[in-house]
Amino acid sequence: MGNCASAESVAAAAASKDIDKQLKMEQKATEQTIKLLLLGAGETGKSTVLKQIKLIHGTGYVDEDRVAYRVTILTNVITCAKTLLNAMEILKIPYSFDPSTVDVSQFQSPGDASGGDATVDSKSDAGSEGEAGDDDAPKKEVVEGQLQKTEDPIARASQQAYQNILNSGEPQKGPVSEAAAVVLASPMGFGVGEPIPKNIVDAIDIVWKDPGVQYCYRRANEYQLIDCCAVFLNDLARICDPSFLPLDQDILNSRVMTTTIIETRFKIEGIIFRVFDVGGQRSERKKWAPYFDDINAIIYLVAINSYDQICFEDDSTNRMVESMNLFASICNHPMFKKTAMIIFMNKIDLFRAKLETTLISDYFPTYEGPNDYDNGSEYFATRFLSLNKYEKKIYVHFTWATDTKQIKTVLAIVNQIILRSNLVEAGL
Ligand SMILES: Nc1nc2c(ncn2[C@@H]2O[C@H](COP(=O)(O)OP(=O)(O)OP(=O)(O)O)[C@@H](O)[C@H]2O)c(=O)[nH]1
Ligand SMILES: [Mg+2]
Predict the structure, then answer these.
(1) Is 256 annotated as a binding residue?
(2) How remote is the CA of residue 48 from the centroid of ligand 1, in Å?
(3) Are 36 and 108 members of one domain?
(4) Residues 96, 177: Cα–Cα separation, whole Å
(5) Which ipTM value was assigned to this complex?
């Protein structure tokens, strides 16, 4: 009997110890949960960063995911091809228009020297129109962020050639216009396992290689084109092959606008990260506020290459200006006073490429430095940091969200920042 009582009390003590242990573990688990919000305007790369976290710290993608992403990628391909063709009409560029054959001297006007020569040279790829300069020409007045429609000898030549075709009353003829008709008549998307028919793939290829379409592509800031256009259309044969199954890199390059808030959980070095990815377009932002409670850290995404682009949502607001205004409201939000704040100045690969063709000062007249990466990136980082009213510590990283190696390094640093600032916050 005595033995029995003692066995019971031993069992009870053990059970109580288990409960204590369980409680402690639960307490520890809650203590060690980090709520991380990915914020930023549309198309800045939030979902791409989430995909990277999934690849680096999660389970990655299984074949079922890849089959679904294939549908997305093929839709991206069709969307890009159709968008380019519609833009040919808007910008008045005829098929087969070749900027390199234009006699620039015939299309000059007195304003050609003002400020935009670097842009003009590279967008046209024509090489000689830099000579159009006349230092006495009046300087263009630049309003911050205002869209600059390309007005140079090449654009004029293209418009005139386009107008001549219209005046002739005859439709454009030839293989490119025939291919364009096939692309424009193609369905927007294809189902799971369904390939894009070969005649449509061939038509997209012809359209994409046309010099007029390539010129139109270089002027993509004048209309809305998703960033994965070149990466997919340059790789058509592989992507449109019926056996195509997307690689991780293809998934990272693909584009779907986020319309619901998605929470994904990861365990990183024993700590649970609850990562929330939101839609960045204006219509999506009203869904954000309910998720602002108890947020430990925010990664705010900026597309640093977007300084010459207008918002998808309206045709007058510059994307960088939109991004700055949104950041001002987030970083000075009373609920985020103690939240670790990290800015990702993202799309640095596209930023570098854009600097070759587009002057920052054409869109941000307060920028007086050389049109290079170091000075340009520092300028935009400083502009964002200057919006911080409370002198709160804000960390800035320059990122290339589609590059897993670079993001892996950045995320390791970010994890340390988040953990450190939350230890400080907890008084530890
Ligand atoms: N080249 C390049 N492309 C990028 C980079 N970051 C994102 N992208 C591409 O940009 C496009 C938009 O990225 P998303 O991650 O969908 O943007 P988002 O911020 O989630 O957009 P919303 O869901 O509309 O708010 C995708 O095609 C990405 O592959 C980058 O650093 N470099
Ligand atoms: Mg998204």
Answers:
(1) yes
(2) 6
(3) no
(4) 9
(5) 1.00
C-alpha angle 221-255-82 in degrees, rounded to nearest 5: 60
- 74 lies in some domain: no
Per-residue pLDDT for 427 more than 60?
A: no
Higher pLDDT, 390 or 14: 390
Q: Which of the following is catalytic: 219, 255, 319, 383?
A: 255
- Provide the whole-model pTM: 0.88
303 vs 343: CA distance, rounded Å: 11
pLDDT band at 138 (very low <50, low <70, confident <90, very high): low
What pLDDT, in 10s, does the model give residues 398-415?
999 999 999 999 999 999
Quickly count helices (H) and strands (E) in the chain: 15, 6
Among 100, 77, 227, 225, smallest CA distance to 154 is for 100
Out of 135, 167, 199, pick the residue that ends a domain: 167
pLDDT reading at 382 higher than 70: yes
215 within 8 A of 124, measured Cβ to Cβ: yes
205 in any annotated domain: no
List the domain range (segments joined by +) for residue 132: 99-167
Task: Give per-residue pLDDT as tens, 321-335.
Answer: 999 999 999 999 999
Q: Give 407's contacts (C-beta < 8 A, 6+ positions apart).
A: 49, 52, 56, 399, 400, 401
395 and 285 both lie in a single domain: yes
Domain count, the chain: 2
Mutate to test the pocket of ligand 1, among 48, 69, 80, 408 (most ligand atoms within 8 A of CB): 48
Biggest alpha carbon distance in the chain? Answer: 113
